Amino acid sequence: MEIFLKENIRRVIKELYNAEVNDDLIQIQETRKDFKGDFTLIVFPLLKFSKNTPEKTGEMIGSQLMDSSPEISGYNVIKGFLNIEISDKWWISYFAGMMAETDLLKNCRVKNPEVILVEYSSPNTNKPLHLGHIRNNLLGFSLYRLLSACGHKVIKTNIVNDRGIHICKSMLAWQKYGNGETPESSGIKGDHLVGKYYVLFEKMYKFQAEELMSKGVEPGEAKNSAPLLMEAREMLLKWEAGDKEIIELWKKMNSWVYDGFNKTYEALGVNFDKIYYESDTYKIGKDLVQAALKDGIMYQMEDKSIWVDLTSEGLDQKLLLRSDGTAVYMTQDLGTAVLRQQEYKFDKCLYVVGNEQNYHFQVLKAVLARMGYKWAGGLHHFSYGMVELPEGRMKSREGTIVDADDLIKEMKETAREVSLQLGKLGDYNDEEKEEIFRKIGLGALKYFILKIDPRKNMTFNPTESIDFNGNTGPFIQYTYARIMSVFRKGEQMGIKFNNTILSEMKGGEKEIDLVRQLRRFQAIVSEAAAVYSPALLANYCYDLAKEFNQFYHDYSILSETDVRVRNFRLAISKYTSEVLNTAMWLLGIEMPERM
Question: Dihedrals φ, ψ of 392, to 5°?
């Protein structure tokens, strides 16, 4: 319709003012909700042709358009904006074309698809996944599906931080206090067991530091010289030196963690095409740093530590190798980036990492550019806000995190309680009910997180998220299930949607409102992918579900006696269900057919 309007506006301006007008001066947008109309022409750029006021120019163009184009049923002018109303007949015809198209995402495909790596999850092997990881994983996975829907080749990657002082803390605590405890002997999930010893290390370390301070040692020195921390540092040196005993312990405890992670990923419904490990990529990073030192790109301090000076880029001086030769996070990120480019020749690499790491990724990009890697310009930090609970921020070291496994289980149990209260699953067996509870619980969790602008901090409220009313996942899922029930009931009544008489459909204001909303779907998908914001699609789903429920409340479907009207309403219901199902799938959310 935008193309049609531009062609006709160009013709009208030629007729009215004997002037040729370029497309960039014909600015058309969807009419705002608080004004009457479908499309709005911004009149101001056309005043140089009309030599008249914005209001008069809008009136002249609107009148001429309406007289010459039967597709236009009305117009109004508000200051310098011409709001154009499109006829119901055109909308019905347009909807028939939508129904005839089998690929809901056809118009989302970009002309020049790219190879895009999306890195998400990035867990440490000293603790289980928590609520913050859930937001990370859900954002990364939905970005993968959105970008893939637009035709890009997307590789889902994960970098596991499986080395470093934090890993050694868990290992040392288990070695000292574990008494051979294993996931099998304790019945504790592997990542939880390792996390238990990380928290224990911090507890014992804090006790030692406080004991030193009580003897008069300065706080800074006490924290830096506590025996446990000194032992953990020694363990890290042995690990990097390849000490056989330490390496075996590291492999054993990491294997427990990986098994635990995989179970959580499966429960959450996310996966990866390639998993990288810091224990491999940090070696590549160390070689890169040493080579850059030889080339004069970096410099070495008297204590043998290696740095890069980025002050000319508005940053600071960054440590890349410690004086003892051990690597820092930046070192492994350099190695990982170079390895990925060698393997995939990516155009873009999206790092789904919290906003507390904004500076880190500025430095990473600058260091790679300094090293001469032109593709460094394709690195993008997808910076998202932190997740908090109503009672405040989580702290891993103190063991006050919201565990991902516990939260997933809690959401399913809450879904069970709410669903059983509604009492609509009486003829389902226990296995079928459990599957529905799982979909509702996870849907509530995922939607609540994804509907928030990723750049913003958010507070997660489990109870609020699972409400069957309002802007929630269960509300959208319930709308879909409601449509499915219409078609099940229709089959029982012998009424089926007739796809062969779309041209004979007949509808009114509510039906047309739904068509307008459905028309926006592919544009929303394209925009959400382009600006990396699943929230745009999530909130579109809510708007569409809300629009459908208003229609469902005000109009009968199966009991409508006019076959043309009934068929239109069935067609709209069917298309709405397909759009909701596809949109929620792009967000990683499953839709139950009954609730």
Answer: 130, -170
| Residue range(s) in the chain whose domain bears CATH number 3.40.50.620 | 120-388
Nearest to 470 by CA among 535, 545, 389: 545
Cα angle, residue 461 at apex, residues 460 and 462 outer, rounded to 5°: 110
3-class DSSP state of 490: helix
Give, to the nearest 10 degrees, the angle between helix 534-554 and helix 563-586. 160
Alpha helices in 87-130 (DSSP H): 88-100
> Distance between CA 289 and CA 297 in Å, rounded?
9
Helix residue ranges per DSSP H, 299-385: 329-344, 358-370
- CATH node for 120-388: 3.40.50.620
Q: Which residues contact 410 (CB under 8 A, 6 or more apart)?
A: 462
Burial class of 25 by CB neighbour count within 10 A (0 to 12, 13 to 18, 19+): middle
Q: pTM of the predicted model, to two decimals? A: 0.90
Residue range(s) of every CATH 1.10.730.10 domain in the chain:
404-586
For the chain, what is the radius of gyration of the CA atoms?
30
Q: How far is CA 240 from CA 18, 231, 257, 318, in A?
A: 79, 14, 20, 22
Give me the helix-helix angle, 244-268 and 131-149, nearest 10°.
60
Q: How far apart are CA 263 and CA 270, in angstroms?
A: 11
Sheet holding 299-300, edge to edge: 299-300, 306-309, 317-321
**Span 2-86 CATH architecture:** 2-Layer Sandwich (3.30)
pLDDT digits (tens, 9 = 90+) for 326-380: 889 999 999 999 999 999 999 999 999 999 999 999 999 999 999 999 999 999 9
- Whether 577 contacts 557, CB under 8 Å: no
**Strand, helix or coil at 403?**
strand
> Residue 418, by phi and psi: left (phi above 0), alpha (psi -120 to 50) or beta?
alpha
The CATH class of 404-586 is: mainly alpha
Question: How far is residue 512 from each of residues 37, 309, 359, 555, 567, measured CA to CA in Å?
Answer: 12, 61, 49, 13, 14
Residues of the chain with CATH 3.30.1360.70: 2-86
Tokens coding 199: 């928290």
In whole angstroms, give the CA distance from residue 239 to residue 249.
Answer: 10
Residue 451 tokens read as: 């509907």
Can you tell me the distance from the alpha carbon of 29 to that of 32, in angstroms, rounded to the nearest whole number?
9
What is the Cα–Cα distance from 320 to 327, expressed in whole angstroms? 7
The pLDDT tens digits for 58-104 are 999 999 999 999 999 999 999 999 999 999 888 988 898 898 888 99
